[in-house]
Amino acid sequence: MDSLIAVIGAGKVGSALAILLHNRGYTISGVASRTLRSAEELAGRLNCPVFEDCNRAALTADIVLVTTPDREIAAVSAQIAEGKGYKQGQVVVHTSGAHPASELKGAKEAGAQVLSMHPLQSFADVEGAMENLPGSYFALEGDDDAVELGERIVEDLGGESFSIKAEDKPLYHAAACVASNYLVSIMHLATGFYQQFGLSKEQAFEALFPLVWGTVENIRRAGPVQALTGPVARGDAPTIDWHLDALKKLGREEQELYQCLGYYTVKVALEKNSIDSTQAEQLLKTFKGDAAGE
């Protein structure tokens, strides 16, 4: 690949992308980051220059990857533009799922094209990110030619891509948060239940994880509707009532979260056709009735 890439922000996402792109034949022309040490560590792995000034780093490249935290994208991009780091013909890319490509302030005014290229993946650390990125989906949004370039980059990374509109970014990102972040919260909630009868946090996780993994595999094979099992899928209102009674001992927050999740799950069970409208009505009354009775 002939294009030169500058990386502005040597965190988990920027580092993983830079190393993977380097391994696939892209030339990293330079790295800049808020912390010089992190920039030096990444540049050492890539055998490329380190720049203390992000403007100078950007000037070396055809593609500028702005992989800073979301809250810093606009300010860093504006700083590069003010320092004349952007130029005609460049493509400037950020990797935020929440913000549109227009967050790259000053880039278009300098003659560059802008692109949001968000990997639909979670990043606990650099090595894990490098392992998870191939095969992941990326959401692309921005100028037409920049989106085409993004499609080629994603293909080179071994991923899949789809395009979205700027106005759809909030809903897109909300879905990602539900699927990833709130899964973590649900696991925290479930392991907390198990700790109530004497298991340690570690034991609770080890006990529940095979169930979670099996459910994820069922979702992969059959989709989220057909993978649904349990008392809601069976229309078993007495068991739900039993659960709710037990949850009263833990607190209102835990009970209400269980009720909200269950209330939504009734809709999934109806879509699966595992319950009829009469059973659905009874389940909804069970979930709502306890909430109203508190």
Quick one: overall form? Answer: elongated
**How many runs of DSSP E, i.e. beta strands?**
7
Name the CATH homologous superfamily of the largest domain: NAD(P)-binding Rossmann-like Domain
CATH topology of the largest domain: Rossmann fold
Low-confidence stretches: 290-294
What class do helices, strands and sheet pairing give?
alpha/beta
Instruction: Estimate percent helicity.
Output: 55-70%
Helices, by number, come to 13
Distance between the termini: 64 Å
Profile the largest sheet. 7 strands, mixed
Average pLDDT value? Answer: 94
Give an account of the 3D structure:
The chain is of the alpha/beta class. The chain has two domains: 163 residues, Rossmann fold (3-Layer(aba) Sandwich); 116 residues, Orthogonal Bundle (N-(1-d-carboxylethyl)-l-norvaline Dehydrogenase, domain 2), CATH 1.10.1040. 56% of the residues lie in helices and 12% in strands. It is built from 13 helices and seven strands. Strands 2-1-3-4-5-6-7 form a seven-stranded mixed β-sheet, sandwiched between helices. β6, α6 and β7 form a beta-alpha-beta unit. α11 runs parallel beside α13 and α12 runs antiparallel to α13. The longest helix is centred in the C-terminal third of the chain and has 26 residues. It starts with a strand and ends with a helix. The C terminus is likely disordered.
Question: Short summary of the structure?
Answer:
The protein has 13 helices and 7 strands. With 294 residues, it is α/β, with parallel strands linked by helices. It folds into 2 domains: 4-166, NAD(P)-binding Rossmann-like Domain (Rossmann fold, 3-Layer(aba) Sandwich); 178-293, Orthogonal Bundle (N-(1-d-carboxylethyl)-l-norvaline Dehydrogenase, domain 2).
